[in-house]
Specification:
Blueprint (H helix, E strand, L loop, with lengths): L10 H7 L3 H4 L13 H16 L23 H8 L1 H15 L3 H5 L8 H7 L1 H31 L5 H22 L11 H7 L14 E5 L9 H4 L3 E2 L17 E3 L10
Antiparallel strand pairs: 1-2, 1-3
Length: 267
């Protein structure tokens, strides 16, 4: 007997809830983890640093970045203090050395490990953290720019009615994108929940989905029926919705990003 749990707002879970045979059919591939994968080890070392620093990532990256510091969107002072702290790095080094001691023999057999590797990773915490924030920054800047451009068109009395209707639609799309980045409902299930986001960027360990697949913002259709309500409950879905119902795609512009989490990337 197989038991599973399906969340109400998850397109992935709802897809398989309606197709239970897909959850239990076919051959099961034995799980395999390469404990000497450099990216995997680095993300765990960075997770150890995060725990030792006591830094909370909050709910969204708006809790970590100065949104008034446009266009730089620098990290807030308390975040920068944690990133710069030598004490945090020293504590993280001791914990990481203890954690890696169990696989020390395997690590020495790789072509990337050396005695200075751990110090190098911890010295680049600031750089890696900021690089991980860059995709969010670019998406936020793009949405804000779209908001401002379309607002100007809406206010321009010389523009045609058709132009203004188009601008109003694109203005609402930009607002929806900003909500996804900052204040989306059920954000803990969102790709932009801080801890999931940093896992998708490789800064923190993920749990099952690969990082770095293609992600797209595409406005979804709205339907009155209760069927497939999880697809219509929000004006926009990210790229994973394409695997659920390709018919929902419209001709509206899409904001593309090359780094995100896609639940179907591991199939």
């Amino acid at each position: 007997m197989v038991f599973t749990y399906c969340t109400i707002g998850s397109p992935h879970d709802q897809y398989y809830f309606k197709r239970p045979s897909l959850m239990v059919s076919g051959a099961v591939t034995p799980p395999r983890i390469d404990m000497t994968n450099e990216d995997l080890v680095r993300s765990h070392v960075q997770a150890i640093w995060l725990a030792e620093s006591g830094l909370s990532l909050g709910v969204s990256l708006k809790d970590l970045l100065d949104l008034s510091d446009d266009p730089k969107l620098s990290v807030l002072d308390f975040v920068q203090d944690a990133l710069n702290s030598q004490g945090n790095r020293s504590k993280a080094k001791l914990k990481a050395q203890a954690a890696l001691s169990d696989i020390e023999t395997e690590l020495k057999q790789t072509d990337w490990w050396n005695d200075g590797w751990l110090d190098s990773v911890l010295s680049q915490i600031d750089l890696q953290f900021n690089q991980s924030c860059e995709r969010w920054r670019n998406l936020y800047r793009a949405a804000m720019n779209q908001l401002e451009v379309q607002h100007k068109i809406i206010k321009d009395a010389s523009r045609s009615t058709q132009d203004k209707h188009q601008a109003e639609r694109l203005y609402q799309e930009a607002k929806s994108q900003l909500e996804l980045l900052t204040e989306a409902e059920n954000i803990i299930q969102s790709d932009f929940y801080s801890y999931r986001y940093f896992a998708s960027e490789g800064f923190l360990p993920g749990y099952s989905f690969p990082r770095l697949p293609l992600s797209a913002y595409i406005p979804a259709r709205r339907i009155r029926s209760q069927d497939d309500e999880f697809l219509s409950s929000r004006v926009s879905w990210q790229f994973q919705s394409l695997a659920l119902d390709p018919l929902f795609i419209t001709k509206a512009p899409a904001t593309l990003s090359t780094r995100s989490t896609c639940p179907f990337g591991y199939r």
